[in-house]
Design goal:
Layout (H helix, E strand, L loop, with lengths): L7 E6 L3 H13 L4 E6 L2 H9 L5 E5 L4 H14 L4 E6 L4 H10 L3 E4 L3 H41 L3 E6 L2 E5 L1 H6 L22 H8 L7 E8 L5 E13 L2 E10 L4 H11 L10 H13 L8 E8 L2 H8 L1 H16 L7 E4 L4 E7 L2 H17 L2 E2 L4 E2 L3 E8 L2
Parallel strand pairs: 1-2, 1-3, 3-4, 4-5
Antiparallel strand pairs: 6-7, 6-10, 8-9, 9-10, 11-13, 11-16, 12-13, 14-15
Helix pairs in contact: 2-3, 10-11
Amino acid sequence: MINTDRAIELLIIDSSFDSAEGQINTLRNAGMAIHPKRVHSETDIVGALGSGTHDIILCSADVEKTEFDRNLDLCINTAADASLIIMYKNQEPDPLLNALRLGARDVVSINDPEHLQLVVKREFGDLLIRRDLADTRRRLREAETRCSTLVESSRDAIAYIHEGMHVLANPVYLQMFGYIELEELEGLPILDMIAPEDLPKFKKFLRTAESSQGELEIKCQNSEGEPFKATLEFSPASVEGEPCTQIIIRDSSPNKQLQQKLEQISSQDPQTGLYNRQFFTGRLDRIISQGEFTDRPLALLYITIDEFQKIRSDIGIGASDFLLQEFANLLKGQVNEPDLLARFGDHSFTILQEATNDQAASLASQLHKSVAAHLFRTDKDLVEPRCNIGIAFLTG
């Protein structure tokens, strides 16, 4: 959500203290909250721009051409995210037009305070929208990457169909139908996967509205022509921006071993191998409802990784996923049976154990030390995250 109420981080590049103060007062008189900083020497400009914390830059054009060109170059190449506004008093049009060509957002006369107020309001609003859009795109890329990873590692057979033809399928789907490489399947009609006796049923289903989002029990066949019963789930999707249909196929043939495996999967976090949140909260609810803690003290430890979003931004999605796995393994090594260890959220974990206050505090201290002493390795970096641990107690 865009926060238009926060203060504007304002950088003024101007050798005149009075001119800078005039601009600051102009903006404050318009009711804007600003955190201003004035610089004029090259060293100070480089240092201020290098911090990367500014929203709006007001750069004076009323200096020597070489100095203005240098300041303009520094602003455009060092602070591309900030909105650059050129301030002038007595200036020929050519340098101002050139500044606009190079990336300045606007030019404003210092003798026109209302224009300055309007431009800064507009640019700050646009800047927040640009940053929000960039963040949305980043999160979309993360979601697409994570979705692709989940599809590849899914235990369900998943394929994407465009105009009746396969465009993408995961390894389980390939294995289910007896193929080794995706290239063998690309361009192959989905009709080839349906047993001949059920083709009329399948074609009739495709002509209904349910075919875009529905479920169908049907008999499929593998590449050798061997039939098997399956349930097909259809839903709209897209691949590389092109609309298509996602099909999830589940083998309906009786399989006790598969059912046991599915029950195990339903209680397990696939990324870390720990129990998942659903299983943990279910167990905790049962303990509370049955009063299992009345004759023994139970401690619940809640563990979060500090600044994980920043870590993920710094090292990338794949590396941060490996870090989570390694963090989970570290926790596994610190707990014993019958302690219940689970992944509770994206970067949070819980431990439920039979323990007194002192024992739980001792475990929390031990976990802090273990995390602090451990170097988490990625392909390119050594990461040293820290964690926060909260403790709650269940007593009768």
